[in-house]
Write a structure and sequence with these properties.
Blueprint: H1 19-28, H2 30-51, H3 57-76, H4 86-90, H5 94-113, H6 119-122, H7 129-136, H8 140-150, H9 155-169, H10 178-187, H11 191-200
Helix pairs in contact: 2-3, 3-5, 3-7, 5-7, 5-8, 7-8
């Protein structure tokens, strides 16, 4: 993909400071994102009906996660991706992204088994791995290693994004605030992809 200059690559504006950039990225491909969300909801409902167990609905999220990753990647690089292009654009990375998801899941579970504390050091170093995989067309293991290496100095930024997300979700504690919480969290959902763009130093 053609790389382009971006001010955010030079200065990280802080967790709350990237909200505007995240919103712009989401709005660029809003139709594609909403299509994926709709498919995810419908697939989860169907699986729940078939198997009669909510646990199987997670399968839909797992299988659709690579599509969300690619759409977010395109969005932060200001590239339009129509809903009809999602499968075509994701297919070169799909299998490796699934393998990567399994690797990350196993790593996080293992870190939790080590008395929880290691989890807080492992998780922020792996969240950028899917974007490295797409950006450089890496294997799952290579993307895992690259994220582990490159994100080490930026763990605080990851926790900042998590903290900002929690704050934006707080209005959901009141019934009237639920729509606002959904809106703010949704518009902020490209924040991690934006952090990847910053960490990777893409111009």
């Amino acid at each position: 993909m053609k790389e382009e200059k971006t001010a955010i690559s030079k200065n990280w504006p802080g967790a709350f400071g990237v909200y505007k950039t995240s919103k712009e990225a989401i709005m660029l491909n809003i139709s594609s994102i909403l299509v994926l969300i709709a498919i995810s909801i419908v697939a989860s409902i169907i699986l729940n009906i078939i198997f009669g167990n909510d646990n199987f609905s997670g399968i839909a999220s797992f299988l659709l996660a690579p599509f969300f990753t690619v759409v977010m990647y395109y969005s932060v690089f200001k590239k339009k991706i129509e809903s009809g292009q999602i499968v075509d654009k994701t297919s070169p990375y799909y299998v490796q992204l699934l393998f990567l998801s399994i690797l990350i899941y196993l790593s996080l579970v293992f870190s939790l088994l080590l008395f929880i504390i290691p989890f807080f050091f492992v998780m922020p170093r792996l969240v950028l791995a899917p974007y490295y995989l797409v950006h450089k067309n890496l294997s799952a293991m290579d993307a895992f290693k690259m994220s582990w290496e490159k994100s080490q100095p930026h763990q605080g930024k990851v926790w900042g994004i998590i903290g900002a997300t929690i704050v934006m979700a707080l209005p959901a504690l009141t019934i009237i605030g639920i729509p606002f919480a959904i809106y703010f969290v949704f518009m902020y959902s490209a924040a991690v992809a934006i952090l990847f763009k910053f960490v990777s130093g893409t111009k």
